[in-house]
Design a protein that fits this description.
6-stranded antiparallel β-sheet, D-amino Acid Aminotransferase, Chain A, domain 1, 4-stranded parallel β-sheet, alpha+beta, Rossmann fold, about 35% helix, Dna Ligase, domain 1
Amino acid sequence: MIKTAGEAREAARQIGGRVVIKAQIHGGGRGKAGGIKVAETPEEAAQIAGDLLGTRLTTHQTGPEGLPVNTVLVEEAIQVEKELYLGVLIDTSTQALVMIASEAGGVEIEDIATRSPQRILKQYVNLVTGLLPYQTRILAYRMNLPGESVRTATEIMTGIYRLFMEKDCSLVEINPLVITKDGKLLALDCKVNFDDNALPRHQDMAQLRDSSQEDPLEVKASEIGVNYVKIGGNVGCLVNGAGLAMATMDMIKLAGGEPANFLDVGGSASEEQVANALRILLTDARVRSAWINVFGGILRCDVVARALEQVLKEREVKVPFIVRMNGTNLKEAMQILKESRLNITFEADLVRAAEMAVTMAK
C-alpha cells in the first residue's frame, strides 16, 4: 500500500518484473474505470501511481461524484489462465445466505449475470448446518475446475464463509479468483462489506474505517447519532423512524419529485440532535425544499419544533419548510412554530404535504 509515486517506484523495484497498480477505493468496477493498470517498469509504476493518486475515480458503484484515490496497491502481475468468481452474500428473497460461483469472472461478471444467468451458480446455506462440504464440491465441479484445484476451491469457500459469519459481513466477494499459468488457484482481489449494525461487536473492524471514502455529511450524521444517506434529489426530508422515512421518500417520488436524502433522527433524539440533523440537511446545496414529517411517539413533536425554531433563527434560510406532525405534544409544537413567525407551511394531509414539497422545490 503506497501513497506517493516515489513509493510506487520503490515497491515495483522490490517486487521485480511487471506489477499491477490498483486504486484503493470503496467501490467495485475499478478495472473498467481505469483504476487498475499494469506497469512494465518501476518508472511506469511511478507514473501510473502519480496519475491516480489525488484524483477521484468514478465507477458504476461510486455514483457520479466518484471517490478519492488516496492510496494505491502495488502487487506482482500474475500470469492468468482463467478468471473465475466466488462470493457469499445474503439473499433477502429467501432470507438465507447464498454461496455464488461462476467460471466467468473478472470485469464482465455483472454483464454475465444479466445476459447469461444460467452461468451463475448458487448454493443456499442452511444456518443450522452451515455450509456443507458437498455444497462446496458441487460448485467447484460445476465451475469446471481441474481436479487438482477442486480441493483448494472448497477450502477457499469454507474460508470465506467462516469470515462472513465470524465478522458479521454482508458480502465477501473474490473477483477474480484465477487459475494461473502454472495451474494454481489464487484469490487475485477481494471485496468485503461489513454490517454496520454489528460493528460494535468488532472494534478491530471499526478501526479500519476510512471516512475519506464516505460522504462528509454522512460522516457528520454518524457522529451525532442520526441516520443520513445523501441521495441526490432536491426535496430534503427529516423524519423519525425508518419506515416513515421510506414512506416519505415514496410519497415524494409519487408526487413527481426526487428526495435529496434519507434522514431518520430516530425515536429518542434530543433537541440538539434534531437541530444538528437539520443543519446537515441544509448543508446539501441541492436541497430546494424541506419536508419535516414526524409522528410523535417517544420523540415528542415539541422537541422537533424547538429544534426547527433554533436552526431557522440562527441562520438565513431561503429553503421553504413544509411541516406535517402528529402525535405527542402536537398542540405545543404547533404553538411554538406559529409564535416563531418563521416561513413555515403547515399541512396535515400526507399527500398534499408531499405535493407541496415537490412544487416548492421546483
